[in-house]
């Protein structure tokens, strides 16, 4: 998300940095380009006007003109304005952006149009609350319109390892909601997630049904699920639901397929409801907290190290990592350990998504995409290692021409790919040996340059 906007804005700021001192005309020209970039990213016009007006008011003044680094000052002002537009400065609950500060069972009502990813998001939220917050969760489908909708939610509940309300044919959404809350109270559930039916478009029947369920269930959170790829239609949908039903938060799905991101930037200003969660993929664990300051950092190429560390903490096996660290210190790192590392990285998501969280990598987006960095590469490398014998994995030096051909055939890859993997492993092993040889003090004295072959500097 935001790739196109990020590229354009970083181009504007790079030109400002090259000028050194800035005049008022320089700032005005840059703001015209920022305005065009926001409009091309499908940000709503009133939001663009408000954002540019705030930036102009703060940027055209002596504080920026006389600043030691005026371009950086402008970047900070734009960053602050984007954070405000995204709803920054307001505290959120610790449970994945959701407010669970209510007597159990806490009802969460999921609303939205058909096809927005509402049912899948219900499963994702249940998995997150169970795994991260140790909550006992009950999923209940109130969708009697779409064939097999209730069965779909039951299957998602099974995958997430949570309970789902047994299906009773012929019940109305209101009856299902009442039964779900009754089961939630009797069986001591912490959270009950109520997944309502959607429609292909907003109509009176949809709104009446959602309003009736909301009045009966009295949910503590009413989450609207919208598809980010529908752009301003998502904003219009959110406005309609907010006006007719009232929502406490928004979940944006398919943000990994939305290169513009205008809907996210417009949502808070247009509806008044905060974005709470982002869905970035079909996997049940592909759900992220929405942090305005971190998203602004990604847009402006500053990266999002905090989210990267949090994702690593959630996915990496600590015991496995400690065992690997001990083996590295003894110089016993082999291809089996390398395969284990590939598996851990794969759990964190796509490589381009991980790299996109690193500061400055946004400028290399095109090169990253051309390099075809994806989890598919990790899977191919894991397949190559899986085609080796245990002896070959422990002693890669045994792998010569005939063995490489056998490994390539067994893994469905080429000899060139086998060679590439072995070269990467050799480079990693050589660096680890240098680290062990230098020790902690040597590393502190020499820094990264000390790890390069022949002590060459990396750049």
Secondary-structure map:
Blueprint: H1 3-19, H2 24-40, H3 45-59, H4 62-65, H5 70-85, E1 106-111, H6 118-131, E2 137-141, H7 149-160, E3 163-164, H8 173-186, E4 191-195, H9 204-217, E5 221-227, H10 232-244, E6 249-253, H11 262-271, E7 275-279, E8 287-289, H12 292-299, H13 305-315, H14 318-329, H15 335-347, H16 351-355, H17 365-370, H18 375-386, H19 390-394, H20 401-411, H21 415-446
Parallel strand pairs: 1-4, 1-5, 2-3, 2-4, 5-6, 6-7
Antiparallel strand pairs: 7-8
Helix pairs in contact: 1-2, 1-5, 2-3, 3-5, 5-12, 6-7, 8-9, 10-11, 15-18, 18-20, 20-21
Walk me through the structure.
- The protein is an alpha/beta fold and about 450 residues long.
- It has three domains: about 5-85, Four Helix Bundle (Hemerythrin (Met), subunit A) (Up-down Bundle); about 105-300, Rossmann fold; about 310-455, 434 Repressor (Amino-terminal Domain).
- It is built from 21 helices and eight strands.
- The chain has an eight-stranded mixed beta sheet, with helices on both faces.
- The model is unreliable at about 90-95 and about 440-459 (pLDDT under 50).
Major pleated sheet: 8 strands, mixed
Q: From the coordinates shown, what is the CATH architecture of the largest domain?
A: 3-Layer(aba) Sandwich
Helix content: 55-70%
Into how many domains do the coordinates divide? 3
Structural class: alpha/beta
CATH homologous superfamily caption of the largest domain? P-loop containing nucleotide triphosphate hydrolases
Order of helices and strands: HHHHHEHEHEHEHEHEHEEHHHHHHHHHH
- Which CATH class of the largest domain? Alpha Beta
Termini separation (Å)?
Answer: 30 Å
Low-confidence residue ranges? 91-96, 442-459
Radius of gyration: 26 Å
Largest sheet strand order: 3-2-4-1-5-6-7-8
DSSP strand count: 8
Tally the helices.
Answer: 21
Strand content: 5-15%
The 3D shape can be described as flat
